[in-house]
Amino acid sequence: MKTILHKANTRGHANHGWLNSYHTFSFAGYHEPSRIHFGALRVLNDDTVAPSMGFGKHPHDNMEIVSIPLSGDLEHQDSTGRHEIIKQGDVQIMSGGSGISHSEKNANSNKEVKFLQIWVLPKEKDITPRYEQKSFPLLDRKNKLQTVVAPDDETAVWINQDAWFTLGSFDKDATSSYKLHNEQSGVYAFVIKGSITLNGVALEERDGLGITDSTEIDIKADSNTEVLLMEIPMKLS
Which residue among 32, 39, 50, 51 is buried most deeply as judged by most CB within 10 Å? Predict the structure, then answer.
């Protein structure tokens, strides 16, 4: 097993007033040559957006963009005419494909919205842009893992990549495990809340850990904790 640990306080940071963003990987004004990507995982941003503020319409292409709200409501509009609100328990994916423009805004005027925005390099380029959003019951990840993004699971949102995202919410001392779909892939774990030990490595809130050369991830919650596991291809085509 090989690991790469990204402690929460080593992330890139940009505070624009309306947007407070932490970058696990190089993004915008944060450039760290040793932290460009983890396999096909290119961006992991931990964003807080002020009330009624947001990102104006901007383009994307050939990128799988996953948004996971942690609190508050996020308003999405795009060039296909879609207008949606996503909230805690929802997962949204947008395939940029041959090109799409979208905007994201805090739908609330009285509270912040917090969400993870994750970019994954696609398996096939220039596909027809697509959007999907689903709600996932929070109870279905209680002391177990819930698949929310997958290329082969109708209960999850579909991704144009051999990647699987799972979310877990564990009570202190709970244990579980994750078995990889592809032994050549890696797993990048991000601790949303609390503390957890993965394959013997202790992690705290907002820490990230990349794991390769392992077929299974052993999970032990060191406190009440929430974790996101992302199984990612390590070889880029």
Answer: 39
114 shares a domain with 214: no
Same domain, 46 and 110: yes
Range of the domain at 64: 12-123
Q: Which residues contact 75 (CB under 8 A, 6 or more apart)?
A: 54, 83, 84, 85, 104, 105, 106, 107
**Residue pLDDT, tens place only, 58-70:** 999 999 999 999 9
Non-local (6+) Cβ contacts of 16 within 8 A are none
For the domain that residue 222 is a member of, what is the CATH number?
2.60.120.10
Q: Tens digit of pLDDT for each residue in 161-185? A: 999 999 999 999 999 999 999 999 9
